[in-house]
Amino acid sequence: MARGPRKHLKRLNAPSHWMLDKLTGTYAPRPSSGPHKLRECLPLVIFLRNRLKYALTKKEVQSILMQRLVKVDGKVRTDSTYPAGFMDVVTIEKTGENFRLIYDTKGRFTIHKITADEATYKLAKVKRVQFGAKGIPYLVTHDGRTIRYPDPIIKVNDTVRLDLETGKIIEHIKFEVGNIAMITGGRNMGRVGVVTHRERHVGGFDIIHVKDAVDRQFATRLTNVFIIGEGNKPSISLPKGKGVKLTISEERDRRRARAAHQCFVDGAYRGLISEDDVEYPEIIDKAKILDTLRLFTDFK
């Protein structure tokens, strides 16, 4: 019979969006208790070692953190398993880099660099609004912050913009039709679009209909929708792709185009294809492409 909290995590049981391979080891870093859930966070050790490649081992990550070089939301963090999560700002002052943890259209945390000005604030979704002891009103955000005496106009599911230095609300974005949102859960995780309709289901889950930048419509639960700006203008910068999910055929075509372009460049480098052919790929002879592909196949 188990006694006490679990202190380990098997690699096969780790969240898939951490993208850990099966053969490197048996265990994965178990996130510490913090503002984000275990399956919705990214520990600093994975961010620094696996994503940024600033370290090779956890011991190297710990030495970086103990120099107090890494800040999350403006506060120094020395715990290698600290659970950074959605909308958190990770700052590395020695390199002058700022990152915001945000999802790509496959539901994974992407390395999204931001400017120093954008790193001064973050967006937070309001999860609860109620009265505390002595009738003091307060709200709770998605990252566990408790803010007392909020504006009475702020309701549940709205988004607030927080100043990371003071922790105070500097802007309020209402949850309403016509505002741009990012999906934070479900099969549409990471997609960005404008809210077009809200289906209310008493005793069940409200369904939100969203339309993205290429006019593709999809629906998800209310709890998965995170408003990120008024109208169709987001209050934060978006990662590559702007939250538009490609179809399987579009991904295939993009993959083929990228491979063909690399083939042209390598062929020109080896003297098999002229620079004019690389500049105008539509005039390349099919035989040249086959010869180049055959050469690289033999080379490998």
The coarse silhouette is globular
> Which structural class matches the secondary elements?
alpha+beta
Estimate percent helicity: 10-25%
CATH superfamily of the domain at 9-85: RNA-binding S4 domain
The CATH architecture name of the domain at 9-85 reads: Roll
GO cellular component, one term: cytosolic small ribosomal subunit
InterPro entries: KOW (IPR005824), Rib_uL2_dom2 (IPR014722), Ribosomal_eS4 (IPR000876), Ribosomal_eS4_C (IPR032277), Ribosomal_eS4_central_region (IPR013845), Ribosomal_eS4_central_sf (IPR038237), Ribosomal_eS4_KOW (IPR041982), Ribosomal_eS4_N (IPR013843)
Protein name: 40S ribosomal protein S4
Domain KOW: 174-201
Would you write up a description of this structure?
- The structure is a single chain.
- The radius of gyration is 23 Å and the shape is globular.
- Among the domains are: 9-85, RNA-binding S4 domain (Structural Genomics Hypothetical 15.5 Kd Protein In mrcA-pckA Intergenic Region, Chain A, Roll), CATH 3.10.290.10; 120-173, Ribosomal protein S4, central domain (OB fold (Dihydrolipoamide Acetyltransferase, E2P), Beta Barrel), CATH 2.40.50.740; 248-299, no CATH class.
- The chain has helices spanning 44-51, 58-66, 248-269, 275-279, 286-299, and strands at residues 9-10, 27-28, 41-43, 70-72, 75-76, 83-85, 89-92, 97-103, 109-113, 121-131, 137-141, 146-148, 159-163, 169-173, 180-183, 192-199, 207-211, 217-221, 225-229.
- Helices cover 19% and strands 29% of the residues.
- Strands 5-4-7-8-9 form a five-stranded antiparallel sheet, with no helix packed on it.
- The model has no long low-confidence stretch (mean pLDDT 88).
- With 300 residues, it is of the alpha+beta class.
- The protein contains five helices and 19 strands.
- The protein starts with 8 loop residues before the first strand and ends with a helix.
- A hairpin with a 5-residue loop joins strand 10 and strand 11.
- This is 40S ribosomal protein S4.
- Belongs to the eukaryotic ribosomal protein eS4 family.
- GO terms for molecular function: rRNA binding; structural constituent of ribosome.
- Residues 174-201 form the KOW domain.
- Residues 42-106 form the RNA-binding S4 domain.
